[in-house]
Write a structure and sequence with these properties.
Blueprint: H1 2-28, H2 36-64, H3 71-93, H4 105-179, H5 181-200, E1 207-208, H6 209-226, E2 231-238, E3 246-247, H7 253-262, E4 270-279, E5 282-290, H8 304-316, E6 322-328, E7 331-339
Parallel strand pairs: 2-4
Antiparallel strand pairs: 1-3, 4-5, 5-7, 6-7
Amino acid sequence: MTRKRTKSQMIWTNALAWVFLYLLPFILWRDTDVDWGRMAYTHAVILAGAAFVFYFNYFYLTERLLFRQRTGMFFLANTGVILACALFTFLLEDVWPSKELPDETATDIASYVSHVVLFVILSGISILAKTIMKWNDTENLRREEERRRKEAELLNLKQQLNPHFLFNTLNNIYALIAVSPDKAQRTVLELSKLMRYVLYENDHFFVPLHQELDFIRNYVELMRIRLTDNIDVQTDLQVPPSCEKLIAPMLFITLIENAFKHGVSHTHPSFVHIGLRLVDDRVACTIANSYFPKDGTDKSGSGIGLGNLRRRLDILYPHKHILRGEVKGDTYVSELVVPLYPQPPKGGPDTDH
């Protein structure tokens, strides 16, 4: 529908432009004493020739010859068309009786040359317009292909993220079975809530922020079940519970997972503090956890989570996000800041990257 509307608009725009060019001399010279009948006739003849040169270049010569690298043939054909149209319109002008003297050779030559110059200018305008249109179509196609490629990549990243998240959570349940079967059963129930979100809500590129907050709360409660009393877990979610602004799903969970995975010790007092706050039209997630450096024998963690997160951020929020992490004494602090959208961005994933 949009393409048909655009084509219709172009037709009407071209038609109005030619009508305006035809009426222009009558507007400019309305107070002069001229042969209006001859002017109407000759101006119509010249514009007919000009339209032929313009559209023959636009729809045929530029497309079939110039864009196919047949430059020499293009210039020969274009020159022939211009000279022939200039001669044809020049001869047609004499069909209308003139009040001028018949011996006007110099005037005739000047008139013919003016036709040639006019048609050369229109030919150049036609080539420029066609080139711009071609570039615009190519650029739109490139953007569409880039958008589809990024959508496919995002889908692939989600397909990686879901099993990765499930695998980590199942490992936690497995560890609980031998220690506390009751806790393991509760964990399975909590997991079902999380997986409902992962499987159904995660299909969208953007979800309301309050849904993401519910997911984080459920995940933290799931983690609490398997933790001992010497681990301090705090959440400070300073976000309205009904916030409808949109965010990409499951962005913060990777950092929260890593905090529980690498910042919790069952033999030493440890902590995980999670904070979310709104800053204008952005949401900032800050996570502080105990820092226990890994030794060379620790092979836990495949790196899929953080690599996946960075790539998703690059696609969804190019040059619009902040992701950082640093060690402060015996604490590791990570932060992720992303913009919130009142409605889904047009065109899906951002392609200006």
